[in-house]
Specification:
By secondary structure, this protein is of the alpha/beta class. It contains 8 helices and 5 strands.
Amino acid sequence: MEKATNIIWHEAAITKGERRAQNGHGSCVLWFTGLSGSGKSTIANAFSSYLYEQGISEYVLDGDNIRHGLNKDLGFSDEDRTENIRRIGEVAKLFVDSGTIVTTAFISPFRSDRNQVRALFEEGEFIEVFVNCPLDECERRDPKQLYQKARRGEIKDFTGIDSPYEAPNAPEITIVSHKVTIEEAVKEIADYLVSKNII
């Protein structure tokens, strides 16, 4: 597909700083990464609910939901996974520019893809949340029966089975999800954001 070349970036009349000031809090992306079944979506949504209850502008971008719309043309090859994450990064950046705290729940298995997204943001705006859960525990949970299907060969390129997962080297937050409650995970994330003066 031919790329457009006759386009010029248009500066917004209202700045990110002004939107943050109006909201009374900062904005950032909480990038939840981890194996399928680790608890990413559950914790991301619980934290989003916590923010909402505090009157904080928030939104959740969930991997499955995004693949029903924006990224429904993508599969699960390495190339499509990279494009999936690239698009989400750009959408998340728009939310952060709007003064919103956006939580994303994506396996995002490759460090290079997550680092490419991090590079889109200003210092402190990209917060990597590693939801660390052993593969055997994720398989035991297997809420969508995906691991079973992958083991039977019904799903190809499944992360943790026949496609690799590259854990973060230095995430801002690590949640050991099989050892803490959802409430404890939410508090850990909230404490981090408070320490950074985001909320």
